[in-house]
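Table S7 (text form). Paired inputs.
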Amino acid sequence: MAKVRVRGVYTTAATRLLLDAGHEVVEPSEPIRERFDASFGDGPAEVEVRNSDDYLGVYVVGDGAREVAETLAAGRDSFVFDAVPVGAVRDATVEETTGSGAFVRFDDGRGFLPYSKTDDRIDDGDELRVTVVEEAAPWSNGSPVVAAGERVGNELVTLVRGASGSRVEGGTAEDATQLSRTAATVGAEPPSGWGVVYSRDALDAEMGELAEALGDAAERAEEGAEETDARWLWLGSDGRAAYDEVRAEETTTVAGHHRLKATSGAASAGVDLAEALVDSADPTDDVPLDVIRRKFGPEEGDRVEISHGKPDGRFISLGRGEVVSAEEGEVVVERGMSGSGTYDALDVEREEGDIARTRFEEDGWAYATVYKSSDGEKKGTYVNICTPVEIFPEAVRYIDLHIDVVKEGDETRIVDEDELAGSVEKGEIPEDVAEKAREVSRSVADGL
């Protein structure tokens, strides 16, 4: 069992789950101390837990991260994905250069290298050593940020192996000279063979802080990089509902609490206000989806992205479409299609001017897309089987479960059952979720 420090919007529910599983929660916030009749430790923490920036999931880092993440994986649509932790050093190959940096590929992931984090010219195909400096959730549109070279450091000072001299990120040569002189004044020097990169915050640091930061970085450089474990936990509709019920054991929790937290900043503030004004609430009540949609979107005329997650941790955008209908718990989205190739599992050509009309229902384990030609002729229907759909103001989100149902003319087929079986064998999809997917596919096929 691990010593775990928890922060963020899932803290109350996560604390309850961790304590029930026998983990020790350390350094709790004051509200958590007040809510729980439990003993807490003072640390240091072995594992850190915090929500992702978009509140759609949780980042877990430290020795024992996998066990902690699996403890927190409530609900049938919660998935634990591998993460490359901050500080990890990798040999990488440049895949693609852009105006602001380059995408690089390494054995266990992909990262983005801003030009500001390398001193060398970067071209496609280049091989280089990089260090992960910022994490990014796999369901976000970004990639982990990497910096060129082997690096160790902290918020004020980063040491780069094989570099020379010093510089300040976003600063001038004069800034770097000033900081180097300040460090030398207090007897703080980088180890031989390492260059120094100061953060902008270092310019405002006191002498003692700067010396301590440089000493800490130098100690890490001499000890060598020690990589820790990290995991991302995706929480879907079932997972958030389960967290609502767990949280309600400790404090007032309205139906849809964590769903609203993930909807928008305004929705998050609204749920806090609502809970402050009531003495009790039932988290198992129906979530007021129509109220949420009318207040925060999407509405007719809006454009939303279709975020198509895979059980192995990949997330693919199926593009953005226009909302042509929006009712309680349901939206219909239309996308214009390009004329290239054929539609997946349908033996029908894609042609310029085709329209894809997709109906999404909140918490539905499937959604149907009807493909039509520019003159309105129906080409076929494709039904994706997936974890319960969530309709957010900017995107529709779910995890695809591989198995699908297609209809062309009078023929209806269930496809990709082998892919589902393979994903179960790899441990990506639990057997009970796979059986639910098979059950849904048979029901859909009978109804088409």
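Next pair, protein 2 of 2.
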Amino acid sequence: MNAGLATVDDLDAFLGRHPDIGAAQILITDPSGVLRGKSVRRDELAAIYREGRQVAGSILGLDVTGEDVDATGLVWDTGDADLVCRPLAGTLVRVPWLAAPTAQLLLTMFTQHAAPAPADPRHALVRAVHALRSATYTPVVACEIEFYLLREGSNGQLAPAGGGRQSERDKIDAYSLQRLDDLAAVFDDIYRAAEVQGLPAGTLMSEYAPGQFEITLQHRADALRAVDEAIMWKRLVRGVAAQHGLIACFMAKPFTQRAGSGLHVHVSLNDSDGRNLFASAEPAGSQLLRNAIGGLRATMAESLAVFAPNANSYRRFVSESYAPIAASWGINNRSVSLRVPAGPPASRHLEHRIAGADANLYLTVATVLGAVREGIASQLDPGPPVEGNGYRQVTEPRLPATWREALDRARASEFLGRALGQDCLKVFLAIKDTECTRFSATVTELDYAWYLRTT
């Protein structure tokens, strides 16, 4: 399977164009979706491209806080052995938000015998793409990620970034042009950095909360490249925001009374000639598109732990909040989880809306593509589309209501074992089980506020 690895020629060409680069940050995405890595000097890059880089395999067994999870089997069971990281094509780029001339490079992990490291989430996506290509389908993917730009006050309070009086900043003011103007310097630097890194940044909009935004990324007929770009994009937004003294927040629900942030995955399938197989004059798309939706609906409940991987993720699922709460589908309808957007027949595709901005991009897209493939292979019928307000209609199958329930459903899922690989799923669930237990056992300020003097 082609994992999209880079070559020494790629490195030589880059260094020839950038003689001032003195260091590079080498990065790998862990199962929680966190980028981890180290900084190397320029003269170390050639060996990384020729032979790979030895890195502790336990980096794939860390929880979201960066602590070892021994239950993954990747820490002491292996003696914390090294695995081999190799560079990904097209990801060696300048980091324009850092003062010193610096590059960054995404890596993917292999065993000492050159087999894909089972716990590396990117390999799950490689397998999902390969499975569709083996069935003569080319997945076309785009990722839309909502985020907040926040400013931390001297008292530690987080507030939406922007200008104007406090009362103006607290307004929802969706689609506000003033909000874009207030932060024009930040967005100008984001677009400039995207151009430097070759990322296809498109439309900018102010979302349904003060300080919340979205910038679209172009769809790609190379799904691996599309997700690699989305990984790089999140880091870019964080980096440029920090340069301006701001925090770019990708939490699913950073504020109780404000909209959550979603990861919307847009998917279609091309044939070998590049024609969209979901295209149809029918607003619901082709039969193939409806079968894909059938697969996504049938597997959504058992997959929710991937789409909502953290305790905070479940706070996003609020009725009539633009976050979907059911395994539903509809046409030109934003109250459902699976939307067929309006547009010309040739543009028919599905928009998967259930995942939060905090989800691991590789695992999310691998799970989506796996469900699409199974829906098509089994010719699953999605049932009738939801019309009108999907929040007020009972839809089966019911989704898990809590993090623990979602993890239990995922553990019992045969589908996720196929979609992600059993070993990858085992590591992911070991990490999230440990996090869930720790989070649930932690006494919070709300405990004291509710119970200290009343019970």
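The chain has a mean pLDDT of 95.
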